[in-house]
Write a structure and sequence with these properties.
- The structure holds 2 protein chains of 2 kinds.
- Chain A is mainly β.
- Chain A is 0% helix and 56% strand.
- Chain A is built from no helices and 11 strands.
- In chain A, strands 2, 4, 5, 9, 10 and 11 form a 6-stranded mixed beta sheet that branches. A 5-stranded antiparallel beta sheet of chain A has the order 1-3-8-7-6, with no helix packed on it.
- In chain A, a hairpin with a 4-residue loop joins strand 7 and strand 8.
- By secondary structure, chain B is mostly beta strands.
- In chain B, strand 4 and strand 5 form a beta hairpin.
- The N and C termini of chain B lie far apart (37 Å).
- The model of chain B has no long low-confidence stretch (mean pLDDT 91).
- The chains are: A mainly beta, B mainly beta.
- Chains A and B meet through strand 4, strand 5, strand 9 and strand 10 of A and strand 4, strand 5 and strand 9 of B.
Chain lengths: 112, 114
């Protein structure tokens, strides 16, 4: 039962353009969402998060949008840079529950 | 400062043997988590420790898996009688109490069971 889904296993974007990574969830109890970035042979690193009381959170080139009614969130990276090439994981958690439920990841490749 | 460290970085073992994986969390982090990532899969939660509370073991896939956290710091994940399906990257993460959603991950241990 995959409660957090990233339906695109890979995405290629030209340098300087916008990268949009998508994530869907099924558990209506989830109220906190995060994006992690992972380089090969390294652990995931926290990128940005959003609480369910918001619909947008921005940090520099990274913006996360949350559509609760659609149970959908997205990560926008603009402008995309070669160093953004990595695997991006969407994760979710329910209030009072410390463990994160992760998606299967999307491999983003930025083309110079 | 020092991040989360894990050892060994790679472990190859024969089916049926026991293995121990170690995690050193960030100093001062009271919460510690174990996850695993199998080929082509997302990160799967295994177990969570928070301070002196009883650990949340709800993600452990079988009774061959166990974990300890000594002195509120170092943790060991033990897999007994390893099976080929145990092959995965095992990741440890830690966080500060109250910000448990923002977890800091170690580089992982790649376990291969032959």
């Amino acid at each position: 039962d995959q409660q957090v889904k990233q339906n695109s296993p890979s995405l290629s974007v030209q340098e300087g353009r916008i990268s949009i990574l998508n994530c869907d969830y099924t558990n209506s109890m989830f109220d906190y969402f995060l994006w992690y970035k992972k380089y090969p042979a390294e652990g995931p690193t926290f990128l940005i998060s959003i609480s369910s009381i918001k619909d947008k959170n921005e940090d520099g080139r990274f913006t996360v949008f949350l559509n609760k009614s659609a149970k959908h969130l997205s990560l926008h990276i603009v402008p995309s840079q070669p160093g953004d090439s990595a695997v991006y994981f969407c994760a979710a958690s329910a209030f009072g529950n410390e463990k994160l439920t992760f998606g299967t990841g999307t491999r983003l490749t930025i083309i110079p | 400062g020092a991040g989360v460290s894990q050892s060994p970085s790679n472990k190859v073992t024969e089916k049926g043997k026991d293995v121990e994986l170690r995690c050193d969390p960030i100093s001062g982090h009271t919460a510690l988590y174990w996850y695993r990532q199998s080929l082509g899969q997302g990160l799967e939660f295994l177990i969570y420790f928070q301070g002196n509370s009883a650990p949340d073991k709800s993600g452990l896939p079988s009774d061959r898996f166990s974990a300890e956290r000594t002195g509120g710091s170092v943790s060991t994940l033990t897999i007994q009688r390893t099976q080929q399906e145990d092959s995965a990257v095992y990741l440890c993460a830690s966080s500060v109490w109250g910000t448990s959603y923002e977890q800091y991950f170690g580089p992982g241990t790649r376990l291969t069971v032959t």
